[in-house]
Amino acid sequence: MRKFSTASISLAAAGLLVVGIAGVGASAANADTATNAAPAHVATATSTKIPGPLAAVPEVFGGNTAVALDSGFTDALTTLGLTPSTYGTATLTDGSLHFPITGGSVAYWDPKAKYRPYVQGILEHDGSGLNLTAGDTTVTLSNFTVNPGNSKLYGDVSVNGQVAATQAFIFELHGKTLKPLSMDGNNAILTGTTVHISADAAGLLNQTFKTDAVKEGLLVGVATITAQVAK
Fold first, then answer.
1. For 145, phi and psi rounded to 5 degrees?
2. Cα 137 to chain center, whole Å?
3. What is the pLDDT of residue 40?
4. What are the CA-CA distances from residue 34 to residues 89, 107, 173 (Å)?
5. What is the mean pLDDT of residues 6-29?
């Protein structure tokens, strides 16, 4: 079981997965961002009666999370004097970072119903990540975990090879621009989730690099998830 900390430092990617396969139920989790947040008058995941999901994937077999980087974000890196590079199995192709999905599970409830959060589960990206280098200092962000139930992305942080934080909260995920789910064979594809730097991540980056160039909510890019949901 992964442990989560409140420490943070930034750059990565991810999004929300909504999968159209009928299956098993899932446990409830609380949402704390606007993406899946429930109005005060509707039931939430803490309700004693949990309805069955419309669809569930008890095991994600693989796939890829890609983030098309926004020019505002790459400009901020330039201002900071940071040189990005990929870590582990991650790749950078045509302006998009790609992180292989190594496991997870997801359940989906009808978004028109009152149950929130309507997307719950995790998506893991072990063994991949991103390096940020300035001078003789390299920060590595790796082993990303997407939690669609609270619309957050977590990751491990190390500085020059020394662990600084384990599963720190580094990005907020906003799903208002999600496009409809599409299927390609055994792959579920969802695009449109925007990835934003959290307040904690912005503060730590600014403090570390002695700048104010990184703002809370800075758009990193737009995520596309291609998840293998069947063999």
1. -125, 125
2. 25
3. 34
4. 32, 19, 9
5. 30
DSSP string covering the chain: ----BS--------------------------STTTPPPTTS--TTSSS-PPPSEEES---EEEEEEEE-HHHHHHHHHHT-EEEEEET-EEETTEEEEE--EEEEEE--TTSS-S-SEEEEEEEEEEEEEEEETTEEEEEEEEEEETTTTEEEEEEEETTEEEEEEEEEEEEE-TTPPPPEEETTEEEEEEEEEEE-HHHHHHHHHHHT-S---TT-EEEEEEEEEE---
Quick: pLDDT tens for 72-95: 989 888 888 999 999 999 999 999
**Measured distance CA(167)–CA(144) in Å, rounded:** 8
Whether the CB-CB separation of 172 and 152 falls below 8 Å is answered with yes
- Confidence grade of residue 225 (pLDDT, cut at 50, 70, 90): confident
HSE, side-chain direction, 13 A CA sphere, residue 81: 10
Spatial separation of the C-alpha atoms in residues 9 and 208, rounded to whole Å: 9
The pTM (predicted TM-score) of the whole model is 0.76
pLDDT tens, position by position, 191-204: 899 999 988 778 77
Joined tokens for residue 76:
């901020």
β-bridge mates for residue 120, sequence order? 107
Quick check: 153 and 171 in contact, CB under 8 A? yes
Q: In this model, does residue 134 exceed pLDDT 60?
A: yes
